[in-house]
Amino acid sequence: MKLIIIFGPQAVGKMTVGQELEKITDLKLFHNHMTIDLVSPYFSYSTSEGKRLVGLFREEIFRAVAQSELPGLIFTFVWAFDLEQDHAYIRHLTDMFVSQGAEVCYVELEANVAERLERNKSSNRLLHKPTKRDIAWSEGELLHSMRKYRLNSEPGEVKHEHYLRIDNTNQSAEQSAQWIRQHFNL
Q1: pTM for the whole structure
Q2: What Å distances lie between residue 40 and 9, 23, 36, 49, 131, CA to CA?
Q3: Each residue of 23-66: pLDDT tens digit?
Q4: How far apart are CA 9 and CA 13, in angstroms?
Q5: How many CB atoms lie under 10 A from the CB of residue 71?
Q6: Residue 15: partners with Cβ closer than 8 Å, 6 or more residues away
């Protein structure tokens, strides 16, 4: 089994790359908004109850997949490198899958701000992420989170054995997915 964790800032293309990777592998995509948007009609993800519920749903899905016979999972995540709780979450998720014999691969995506602002308005993003359909709000959140958090790693910071960093500013999701598939022999 393989767990592919695709991380990077908002609108960098995590879900779209994950969708393309799902098409060319046996892995299933579990993008972070699948749980956020499930809970959001009742509790905003910015609230403690929203975060708690999203965490519970994700934990149960991860545990079930890790213990299953599935070939693996693709998960997308916005990792704030300046928050220890995000590092702890990735360690927990990695340990959960490794303890079941899975190989965990980290894929970091980065793109310039202008490209991310364009992707923030893409029809695919808006179709699959209802909470991002208020473009002015999501653009403001994207810019605010850039100022508040460090959403890409520093060179050499990620020491995980199976790690790939891709600047996908000028690269299609299909090209990124092919690169990931080849790099990790998926």
Answers
A1: 0.93
A2: 20, 28, 6, 10, 8
A3: 999 999 999 888 989 999 999 888 999 999 999 999 999 999 99
A4: 9
A5: 13
A6: 29, 31, 32, 33, 76, 124, 125, 128, 129
